[in-house]
Structure formats: C-alpha cells, structure tokens
Fold:
Amino acid sequence: MKYHVALKRVVVALLVAVLWISAASGQVSTVTDECIACHASVTPGLVDNWRKSRHANVTPAEALKKTELQRRLSADSIPEKLAGVVVGCAECHTLNAASHKDTFVHHDQQIHLTVTPKDCAVCHLVEARQYEKNLMSHARKNLVGNPAYQALIEATNAPHVFDGAQISLGPVDTKTNEESCFHCHGTAVEVTGKEIRGTDFGDMEFPKLSGWPNQGVGRFNPDGSQGSCSSCHPRHQFSIKGARKPHTCSQCHKGPDVPAYKIYSVSKHGNLAASLGGESKYEEVPWVVGKDFSAPTCAACHVSLVVTSEGDVISKRTHQMNDRLPWRLFGLPYAHPHPASPDTTIIRNKEGISLPTSFDGTPASGKFLIGKDEQNKRREAMQRLCLACHTRDWVNGHWERLENTIASTNLMTLTATQIMQQAWTLGLADPHRSMFDEAVEKLWTEQWLFFANSVRLASAMMGADYGVFADGRWQMAKRIQELNDYVTFLRVTKQSKP
Amino acid sequence: MKYHVALKRVVVALLVAVLWISAASGQVSTVTDECIACHASVTPGLVDNWRKSRHANVTPAEALKKTELQRRLSADSIPEKLAGVVVGCAECHTLNAASHKDTFVHHDQQIHLTVTPKDCAVCHLVEARQYEKNLMSHARKNLVGNPAYQALIEATNAPHVFDGAQISLGPVDTKTNEESCFHCHGTAVEVTGKEIRGTDFGDMEFPKLSGWPNQGVGRFNPDGSQGSCSSCHPRHQFSIKGARKPHTCSQCHKGPDVPAYKIYSVSKHGNLAASLGGESKYEEVPWVVGKDFSAPTCAACHVSLVVTSEGDVISKRTHQMNDRLPWRLFGLPYAHPHPASPDTTIIRNKEGISLPTSFDGTPASGKFLIGKDEQNKRREAMQRLCLACHTRDWVNGHWERLENTIASTNLMTLTATQIMQQAWTLGLADPHRSMFDEAVEKLWTEQWLFFANSVRLASAMMGADYGVFADGRWQMAKRIQELNDYVTFLRVTKQSKP
Amino acid sequence: MKYHVALKRVVVALLVAVLWISAASGQVSTVTDECIACHASVTPGLVDNWRKSRHANVTPAEALKKTELQRRLSADSIPEKLAGVVVGCAECHTLNAASHKDTFVHHDQQIHLTVTPKDCAVCHLVEARQYEKNLMSHARKNLVGNPAYQALIEATNAPHVFDGAQISLGPVDTKTNEESCFHCHGTAVEVTGKEIRGTDFGDMEFPKLSGWPNQGVGRFNPDGSQGSCSSCHPRHQFSIKGARKPHTCSQCHKGPDVPAYKIYSVSKHGNLAASLGGESKYEEVPWVVGKDFSAPTCAACHVSLVVTSEGDVISKRTHQMNDRLPWRLFGLPYAHPHPASPDTTIIRNKEGISLPTSFDGTPASGKFLIGKDEQNKRREAMQRLCLACHTRDWVNGHWERLENTIASTNLMTLTATQIMQQAWTLGLADPHRSMFDEAVEKLWTEQWLFFANSVRLASAMMGADYGVFADGRWQMAKRIQELNDYVTFLRVTKQSKP
Structure:
C-alpha cells in the first residue's frame, strides 16, 4: 500500500519533471530538475511558490544586463556555473557546501538545509556586507553575550514555582527560549547528529538540527555566519514586494517593546499605504517616489533605493539600515546615540555594565556610541527622504519634536529609575539576584521598555495615540505614580509581616 | 405624502422587477422575483449584495455538474423544486417552513426570518453534519449549561453597585449578555409574539424575535438547530473568498482570551497573506497549495479542501475543524487533550466540576477527552498540511516546541493557581460566592485566560511577541509575582482593618 | 560643487516643465507651471503624488458639468480665474492670500504654506460649512478652553520629578503637547518670524511657523479658521478613496480612549471591508449601496452620499457627521445626549463645571445638549442607512441593545466614581490639585475613558470582544474591584506611615 503510493508519486514526479523541463526552456539546471522531480510532489507548496519567484524565472546573467540602478544583484561577477541557469533548489542549497556543517549527501548531491547570508552573498554581495554592519545581524550574539539581557530573558522565560511562601525560578529550557526571544533574535542552528527517516521514496539519512526551524535576524548558522535573509525575504518566493510592505517588519516590530508597526499603521504614511497602497508598484527597482509609491513603507525610508522620476538618487539601497539613524530610540534604559559597532557586547557604561547608558542616564563613552558628526550625517541622510515630499520647515519641525521627546522620555525614565533605586536601597527589592524578576522591578522595566519606547516611536512616525493613551505618555505618568504607591505598599507590608 | 412615496416605490419596484426578470433568463424563481420586486427598493443593499453572490448566478443543477473535487455543494441530490433555479430569497427563507417557529405569512408566502444550518443542509449536507461535531455549534449550549462559565459571565457582565463600603453584584440583564458573550457564542432566537408595523407598502404583521439580531456560531434557532452559517459566510453574498480570509475568523478570535488573529498577523504565514495575498486566488475549489495560494490563512489549515497542482488531496474540506487538533490550547484552566464530544457540559473533572481539568492540572478522565491514538491521528492530519511546504525536520521541530510550551504554560498556570488557592484558604477571597468576582481572582483568571492562551497560540503559529511581551511570557511571570504581592497586601490590609 | 548641483537641477526642472506643459494640454495654470518647474525636482514625491489626483486632472468647470448627485464640489459658482485650470499648487496656495498671516513672497507670488478649510471652501463650500458644525473643527478649541481637559493634559504630559519622597509635576512643554493631544486635536499654527534658508536655488526667505507640521482636525490656522481638510484628505492626492477607507479614521480613532477602528475591524462590517473590500468601488459619486460597496466603512454611515442603484438618496453627504448621532458615546465621564453646539466650552453641568454630565451622572441642562426630538431625528437619519441592508426588526433590536448599554456602562462609571469620591473625601487623594494626577485617580479615569467607551463603541458596531475581554466589561468589573482594594491599600498605608 505504501509502496503503491510511492510508485504513484514517482510516476507523477517524473511526469511533472518532464513538463517542467520543456516549459522552462532549458534554463533550470539539471540538478535542480532532479530536486523538483521529487519535491514537486513531496513539498508541492514550496515548489509552486518558488515558481512564482523572480529566482525561478530570471538567470543571473540576464539580471546583470540591467542598468546599475535597475540591478537587483550586486556581486561584480557571478560564478559561471550559476550565471546561466535560474536560481533553483540546487543553486542555493549546494553553495559553499564545504563550509556548511549541515551538508549531507542526498541523491548524490551535497545538500545543506540552511541557506545563509554567506550563500546569498554570492549574488547579493553588497547587501550581505551591509547587513553585517546592521545591529540585526548581531541580534542573537548581543543577547547571549550580555549578562543584563540574560537576566531579562530568565525573568521572562524561567518556570516559576511556588512553595507556599516564596516564588523561585527554575532554569530556562532551550525550546522556550527558541520560540520566545530567539524567535526574532535568532537561534543557534547546530548539527546534533543524523537520523534515518522513512520517506515516500524509502529510508533516507538526514542531519538532525537543534534550534530549527528558525528565521531570526541574528541566527547562528551552521556555516558560522550570522542572520537569515528569509527573515524579510521569505522562502521560496523571496519577493521584494513582500519585503517592502510593512507587514514584514511587523513580524518582530509590533509588540509593546517595539510597537513600530502599530504606530506606523496610525500614521499618515501608514494610512496612505493601507488605503491607497493598492495603487503602488511594489516591484519596481529603482523605486520612484510619488510615482511608483506615494505612501512610504518601512522599506522606503530605511532600506530601498529611492529615486525621482528623473532618475536622481534620493537614497541608496542599504541593508545596514541604522546608517540613517542618529539615535537609538530603544531605551536601554535610556534612548542614546546609536552604537558605533553592531556588536554591542563590547559596550560598557561608566559603571562597567554592558549597557549603553547608566542608571542616571549618562551615555556610555564616545568610543561605544556614535558622535555628533556621525549623528548629523545620519540625520541628513534620513531627511533627504523626508524632503522628497515635505518642505524644509515641515521636516525641521518634525525632528525638533522628536529630539525634544527623546529628552522628555529619558526624564520620565530617570524618575521611575530613582524610585526603583530607592526601593532597592530600602531592601524592598533585590537587584543582585536579578533586576527584572520581582513585580516592582517589572513595573519599572515596562516604563522604559514599553512606554518610553512607544512614545519615542510615536514621535518618530507621528503615530498619535501611541504617544498618548496607547502605552504612551498617560501610561508613563501613571506608572511613576503607581510605582511610588507600590513601593509604599511593599514597605508597609514588610513592616507588618508577622 | 406617505401614500405618494409608497406609490412611487411600487412603480420603481415593478420596473426593477421587470428588468431583473428579463436579465436573469428565467433562472430566478417566481417567488424570489416577487420578493425582489419590493425588496430591491426596501433593502437595496441586501439585494444588490446578493446579486454578486454565486447563489444568485448558479443553479444547484449546474453546480452538481462539477467534478467531485470542484463541487461546492455536498447533498447527493437536490429537491427538484430548488435544482433548476438560482438560490434566491424564497429558496432559503421558505425552506422547512413547518419546523420554523418564526415562520409567518408574508405576501402569501410562508417566510421565516432566520436561515439555519438545517436549511443550508438541504444543499450543503456534509458541511452541516460536520459542523454539528464542531465545538463551535455548541458554543452557546456549553456556556449556558455550565455553572462555572455562568459564574464567569456574571462576574463580567453583572451591574456592580457600591454602598459606601461593599461592592455587590446585581442580576445580569439579557441584552448585555446578548451583546457580550453571546455575540460570538450565539443567542437564543425565540419568537415572543407578533407586531404590526407600518411599511412603505402599508401595515404588515411580523413575528417579534428575542435574541435578535445575532449570528453567533452556536445560536439557538427557532427550528431547534444550533449555529449560524452566516457567522463565517455573511449574508447575502456568502463568499467563499471572505470565509477563507483571516479577517472572518478575527471577528471572534482576536481578543486577549483568544488572540489567534493577532498572532497570525505577525507570523510568517500572516505576513505573506497580508503582503502577497493579493496574488492569491481565494475563490478556487479545490484550492491548490503554492499555486492558488502561497500564504496559508486560517481556512487553509483548518477548513479548506487543499490539493496539489496535480490534484492530489492534501486535506479534505472539514467544517468540524477540531478533527485536526490534538490539543485544546484554550486553558480551562489548563490546556488539555481535545474534548471527545462537542457537548462539553457532560465533562466532569475528578472533583466533579464541569471543567476539563482539575485545579492541580489533572485532565478529566479518558471518556471526556480524546486519547493518545486520536491525538496522534489528528496531529498527523494537520502535519500533512505543514508538509506541503515544509520539510519533516521543520515540522517536527515546530511541534516539539508547541508541546513543550503546553507543558510550560500549564506549569505557570499551576503556580498562579496555588497562590490563588492559598488566598482562598486564608479567607482573603471567597471562591464559594464566585471564583471570578474579586480583583485578586480576576488577576488569577487572566493568567490562564489571557496570558497562557496567548503564549500557546503564539507557539502554534510562530507569532513572536505574543509569546513574549504582548500578553506573553513576560506577563505570565509578572502576574505570578504580582499575585503573590497582592495576596500579601490583602492579608496585611485585612489585619489592619479598623 | 553646490552651484553645479543647482544648475543641473534648474536644467532638469525646465525640461520637466516643458514636458509637463505639453502633456497637460494647457489646463495647468501658468503660475502652477512655474511652481512645478522647480518643485518637480525639489519635492518630487509631492508633485508626482499630486499628478495622480483628480485635482490635477479635472478643472472645476468640467467638474461642475456633472449632475447634482455626481458633483464633487458644492459652491454654486467658481471664480473665473480658477474654473478653467486644474487645481494645482498656485490655485490653493495663493487663495485668500490677504487673510493668511503665513503669506510670503516666493518667486513673485503671494504664497501661503497652510491651506485651510476657508481656502477649500471656494469650491467645497457646503462641506466647509458643515464641518464648522462638526465637533471635530472645535477639537482644539474645546481642549484648550476647558480647565477640566487642561488638567487631564497636564496629568498626562507634564514632566514628573521625584525628590526622594514625593513626585511633583513640572510645566508641560509645547512640543510635547503638539505631538500628543494636539496631534489629533490640532495645534495653533502661528507665524513667529522669518528666516533665510539656503536652497538649491540660492538663499530664500520663508516664514517661520510654530505648531508646524500638523494636520489635526481642529487646528488653529494662520487665517483664523479652524480645522484641516488634509486630516482625512491627505495632501497632495486628496483621494476620496482614501477618505472612505477606515484606515483614515483609524489615525485618531484607534487608541484605548476611542477604539472605534479596532472595534470596526472585528465587526461584520469591518470583516467584509477587509475581506471583500477589494471588489468595492471606492471612487464613485454618488455611492451605490450593495453595488459600489457591500461593506460599509466609517464614511458610508457617517459621511458619504449613499444612494440605491435606482438613484434614490438614502443619506446625504455630510461633513457635520454628528447630525446622525443621537448620543455622544464618549463619556465625560458619562455618555450623554449629543452637545447642541460644537463649541463645548460653553457647557456647564449643574455644579458649574465645563462637563456635559455631573459626577452623579446628571446630564447638563437642556440648552447645552440636544433634546429627545433631535435625538429621534438623528436616530432615524442613521437608521435609514441601516435599513438599506437590514430589516426593521434587526435594526430595532440592535439599537435597543445600544441604548441598554449606554445605561449599563453609565452605571459602572457611577460605581467607580462613588468609590473615587469616597477616597477624595477620606483625603486619600486630592481632587483640588488635579483629578487626574494620582495613581488611584488614573485608575478611575480609565474606567470611563477607556473601558466604558470601548464597551459602548463595541455595542454600536457589534464589535464582540471589545465589549467583553478587550478593554470591555471584564475590565470595567475588574476595575471597580481593583479600585476598591486600592483605596483600602492607600488607607491602611497612610495609617501605617512612619
């Protein structure tokens, strides 16, 4: 019976393969043809999705013929073997086989399961290089290499047990970490062994991976690289259209810690994208402002190559992204000049802790954070985009408010921190075990992690209520009052304990 | 003056009717023509909306000519009277007139206001039968027949009065229930009498209904049936396209108790649907994975007939829905193997209470919940869909994390419950009056009703921050600490009371 | 180098201008041509966006030829100078130059930066007049002219400082106000001076504006008018399609104080708009219910000219909006009959405070709020729209529930207010300094500002969980219990203070 099914599948697969080869005019490589021969029936959704992709329909050689502005790949030259065939299964999953610890022999081919930025760099070299300078490619490394963030992870993910009097925290399990913090930040994908699995085509051997599946932006890959291009360019259509839409960014930038998407969606930009985005052309390279799109999405201001209808470049494509960000709005615990290196584990504040600011708000020293000149350069780079649609007075007014808001939210963080420090001093909470595990500490944490961040992002994107009543200024003010009352309740309660 | 308007309307209505009859080539039944003659001007939006529907444009006889996979109706045969005409007003609103308590004479026809699953079953028999086995068709019955849920309803909806010292709860009014819990779960639609109403065509008699309007999934209908097909297939277009989009499910699955839609929207699946769904064909039957759609929606995995481009069936259409769910992620108060019967009022935990788990986490006995074998069968049925686009190691890794999360969230529920039980034991709250009406009890309730549910759904759909900072693990951990502090505040306060 | 860039730009600009003039068949005015000559390269996104607009493609003279129902402008006649050219830069930005304090000379033209309702009224007279009667045009005035609202602003936006024992509030800075409350309500745009700025075309003088940028609905404009049409019709495409989509309203109506968009999105109407809105025609005037659109958006019920397919008017276009609202659901602190005048600063409750209701729930006297007759008239106007798609029993049942909910949420507000008043009486909070600045006061405020509002809007739009678990009845009930506990904690804490 199972044999019967398998036989039927082989026949269908062969038939599909024949049809496919004839349709694709010889541009699909022989090895990819072989992959498709079975996978069209084994993982049909995956294969049919790939068929819609530009990868499946254009060879690198053809792609290189475009003008520089129109070009979608950035390596100066493409290895001969790859240039003349479309980018299929084998082209990516056999690249750099030797450096991939997850490489295994599958139907006589050296296949690896993960495709990494190093693989993509064969054609998209500039983007891969830029991405290495992006904080995102270090998203895992920066978490696991920083004791302060480790404490936050534990206070969030650890099992909590109650013994009738006290709550104690057990060790965090890996699977929980993988689907919480590391879902976005990236897991460590490692080969832990091999296993034989029964398939429709008989028993086969596959590598066993830990940390899998995952497409986090700072994933540790089995070839030693960091990141995952499919975080934003999901497999196997790899659509630029998708990457340019705000929903892609929303996957990791919507929660209360970084409510960027929520805020964008109530901004004028977000409204225009939602209401009139259907009229935009999300596939064009370069992307003509006002013509191809009127409603800027996240990508328009932070990533894409944007030009005027006369072909003048307003902003170059970047996958570093933070090269237009003078400030890091994300408070740790205060907003601060952007880190100079994407590796933030090297940062030390004046107390020697791996945080970009001290508890009194002082930024870490100049070697760790960018200086005024770099800030000005980045601000100007971003403003060039603003100025494509807005006048100078509009842009200046907007940025003055943003920088005012950085100061005012840092002040509200300072006040909450002073109350917290008093509680620590009075022994009403214990910062030595962890700064994040007690209720009162969590109240303090949300002040900067949720509310101040929300207000700043609302300021940056003109996102109305996220700066007021939706985890905004109302909550910042309320939290300071609540925190103070809570500390009082703790003090009185402690004194009254039997 | 009023007479004048009425006359004008009659003339217009006749004219419209004539035009309509000639356009529709005799496929509209005579009785439906008569309905339209007036209703095109009385409820023009409703009629014009129906005209866009497949019901208005295809007769059952034509629909039956499709191949089995393409067919959209499932009864073996259709009554002769219905087969040759399109499905218009009269075809549905006069069906099974005798069993409808809301039937009344209207222009010489036996009309009923509500159309029920029993009516739809005349053509869509299999779907109606499957839906009877769906928890959703029992959504009202399971609420009103369970004292524990009744207590939750009262604690939520009852008017709260303050006498200067104490808060007391008054009786819940029906209208409030109807537009809160029963909005989704379904009201009881009952005929309470008749009334004469003035219309543009003179005075007419209509039945008076209680519990109306409502389209809740477990609605009690005047013909004794349960449910409402228009919950997901809203009148009068009844679009399969609409039902396949996630917004339909979001109507009842977005709030903090079941944030399925929110989580989906930040998952890779949800991003693809939002970003690239415009390229999908949402009308095709059967639905070809990878070709008709690349971004799975709720319906793709839980309901629709999904096939490969070669026509192999990956999953059959089901309106039972839970036949692919090994676990019920929704905690009551713990996640547990899916109930064996859609009627959950019969369940008793080991303490004899109508809940699928005990307060210490023990599931109710085997006859009430499905066993390991059925769980495995259901898991495999769901995984067949996963495997259409993902490899086996991906799918296994994902499911291992989900089942790990069920265990870890159940633990966090247990800890909160132990703290709650201690407060009950100490007399700091009173579980006998209600387990849900005091502030501390509500804090406990949210631990499993909001946070644990959110984390599990985030795990099931890879929905990032809903498992962490957005009603996720951060809130689960925080709530345990808060709850413990709160119990302490209550204890000290009680001792200090004058 | 800079000179070189400028020269290149001038050449490009001239070239573009020539091409543009030839393409536009002489309908663009000479002055607008001059604007475009430079601005096509200076603000290319803005100019290209305008080119997509109806303004750029239809002259008022042509627009006036439409039938009355089809017409999109409402002035009886259009000044000759404007009638024959499309509506370009100069047509709007030089209108009524004398009354604009922000007028300045720019390339020999009297240009003003802001375009105001008074300017738009030249062609859209009826809409501008209606909007003056809309609460929204008074959104700023009503805030700044009301001491109670001023106290709320301060308690939200003021910097909070901790001296080691007490929290004190500093003065609110203007920029913070501008990007929080006044972002939606409107800033005061005032000319504060002039400045010389270097541009690609040399140094130029521009007016300096305070309160800029802003597009709040009640903006104070430099010509003395109130409001901003681009709140809902954003520059420079001014799309009716955009204004008719719910995302536009969501910009200011999504937060916890007015979660209208969130609620709409889980209503049947919202689901239909999201799922099937792609089939709707959002550009048609008049808008045919059931044909052009089946899924009502905010605009469909509150603003647009809606007709039947026979051309019968169901509801006239209105920019007053509240002319179909019998109740103001927004609690201050109780829901109440709609204010009679859009200027609510004149309202006095029986205690003489500028609020439409007293703390015991009594509405302000009859001259300030509309009476039963006006309420009935407005209810009927709204119900005419409901009845286009729903039967009378449906509509009546829906409205009975809504009015029941107004009563039940007002009761839950009263209970919370009684607890709050007791705390004030006991000296546990101080209402004289501010009613909104202490934690316990903020808990009370959220009862009516967040939860009761959410429940009422959920009732009005059948928005399920926003009436239950998503800032709904669950939270209303919980807050009453929490508030009572909190007052007890404060009392005991105060007694125990060392």
User: Anything to note?
Assistant: Chain A has a mean pLDDT of 94. The first strand of chain A starts at residue 103 and ends at 106. The two ends of chain A are 72 Å apart (CA to CA). Residues 184 and 216 of chain A are 4 Å apart (CA to CA).
